[in-house]
Write a structure and sequence with these properties.
Strand content: 25-35%
Largest sheet: 7 strands, mixed
Radius of gyration: 24 Å
Distance between the termini: 43 Å
Bound molecules: flavin-adenine dinucleotide
Helix content: 25-40%
Shape: globular
Number of strands: 24
Structural class: alpha/beta
């Protein structure tokens, strides 16, 4: 592995056969997360492919010339030509490898793969998921001198890192940008000394053995596991939804309702959350239209009646969204009547989607006792039905899912674990 300056780019990159080039920056958590993977892979592929790093802040002109807009950015070169797709953000080992393998003959790739040595590491506690729940558990465990590793399929921060602003987390007078709040939480836990393995692929979780295999070759074992994997909102799947998430489309009324003061809002859904959250949103919105796929709500009777009698709420039944389009400050929602197939466009200032959340439990759904919605059941110390396995945050069976409640669960689990390990 080699570090170069822009002046060496021609010689080291363009005149070499196979190169992977990492534009990195300092004070860049995804760059830190990438650094150890890059170094590790350079040992594996280093004889066939040149691993080169370049400090973006000091080589801005070259970065601009190559249209490198964020750190880290990985570029692949073969005989002076850029090949494969660029990788940015929370880069996974498997994504880097996929591109590296494309640059080499099949038999060479097989030979390199045969040299991968499985590794095993031991900790007191594995925390799966580095959102507010996992990070808080990590902080308390670390401060109690418990050897802890946090493992996340993405970068640390969980939902908070993609939340526009957080105004209900105590301790801050002004609303905090979600990414800053999650960054502070993550740095606090990291500075204490917790180990992070982030932007990894989880190959297998064996709760009985208390063992997690990541990136296919690395086994991490511990005396206890804390599951803090959170939830994923169900998506409508309509075009435009993913692109407009956080830019006009929201999945949280408590978080984003306040930005809808005097504005027109569309809510998608018809269950309890959709109807109750709609009622909450009318505190802010001047007009709210609920779009529901069936001919009546599935929410409880009282909530339905309140919504139907609310003068600010209009309801369009038998209708599904087909597309979301950004139009300046507005969102155009294309809806279709599921019976007549007739389409129309609704213009609003914001769209809220409440068609359910799903707990992230795919890797261990058969091992743990769950409630009827698939959330993990815990006792008051956050213990699950399996000995040595705890769960915290949004993934557990509970009534209210907020940052403060996830943080509280993390605290409780960590204190209970620290006591048990003592
Ligand atoms: C858009 C939005 C805005 C919100 N705004 C607010 C707000 O303003 N105020 C508030 O109090 N609450 C808000 N919430 C709710 C709040 O974000 C959650 O309650 C909180 O983040 C839950 O924390 P958590 O740690 O349980 O889970 P999450 O924040 O969901 O974090 C879970 C972590 O686990 C990781 N993970 C998932 N699967 C795996 C796996 N198999 N292995 C390893 N890691 C995994 C994820 O990558 C993620 O980093 C908002 C929620 C959303 C969706």
């Amino acid at each position: 592995m080699k570090e170069i300056f822009a002046s060496e780019f021609k010689k080291e990159v363009l005149r070499s056969e196979n190169v992977i080039l990492d534009f990195y920056s300092t004070e860049c958590p995804p760059c830190e997360a990438l650094a150890s993977k890059f170094e590790d892979l350079s040992r594996l592929y280093g004889n066939e492919i040149k691993f080169i790093k370049i400090f973006r802040q000091q080589n801005r002109d070259l970065a601009d010339k190559l249209a490198v807009k964020s750190s880290p950015t990985l570029l692949y070169y073969k005989n002076g030509k850029e090949v494969a797709g660029r990788l940015t953000g929370g880069i996974k080992r498997s994504d880097i490898i996929r591109n590296l393998d494309r640059m080499l003959p099949v038999e060479k790739v097989a030979e390199i793969k045969s040299r991968i040595k499985p590794s095993v590491s031991e900790y007191d506690v594995i925390i799966l998921g580095a959102g507010p729940g996992g990070l808080t558990a990590g902080l308390y465990l670390c401060q109690a001198k418990v050897k802890t590793v946090l493992i996340d399929i993405s970068l640390p921060g969980g939902h908070v890192s993609t939340t526009h602003e957080v105004s209900n987390y105590p301790g801050f007078i002004e609303p905090q940008a979600g990414y800053m709040l999650s960054h502070s939480m993550s740095e606090q836990t990291k500075l204490c000394g917790s180990v992070y393995k982030v932007a990894v692929d989880i190959t297998k979780v064996d709760l009985d053995k208390r063992e997690v295999i990541i990136d296919e070759y690395e086994t991490v074992r511990a005396k206890k596991i804390v599951i803090a994997t959170g939830t994923t909102p169900n998506l409508t799947g309509a075009p435009g939804e993913k692109e407009l998430k956080g830019k006009g489309i929201s999945y949280c009324a408590t978080c984003d309702g306040k930005y809808m003061d005097g504005k027109e809002v569309i809510v998608i859904g018809g269950g309890n959350s959709a109807v109750e959250e709609s009622e909450f949103l009318t505190r802010f919105a001047s007009k709210l239209t609920i779009i529901h796929q069936f001919d009546k709500f599935t929410a409880n009777k009282q909530a339905q009646e309140r919504a139907l009698n609310n003068p600010k709420i209009a309801v369009i039944f038998d209708t599904e969204p087909r597309e979301f389009i950004k139009d300046g400050d507005k969102i155009i929602t294309v809806i279709e009547n599921v019976k007549t197939k007739e389409r129309q466009k609704l213009i609003s200032d914001g769209v809220f989607i409440f068609i359910g959340m799903k707990p992230n439990i795919e890797l261990f759904r058969n091992d743990l006792e769950l409630d009827k919605w698939g959330y993990i059941k815990t006792d008051e110390d956050m213990r699950t039905s399996l000995s040595g396995i705890y769960a915290v945050g949004d993934v557990i069976s509970k009534k209210y899912r907020q940052i403060t409640t996830a943080v509280a669960d993390g605290t409780i689990a960590a204190m209970a674990i620290a006591k048990e390990l003592n």
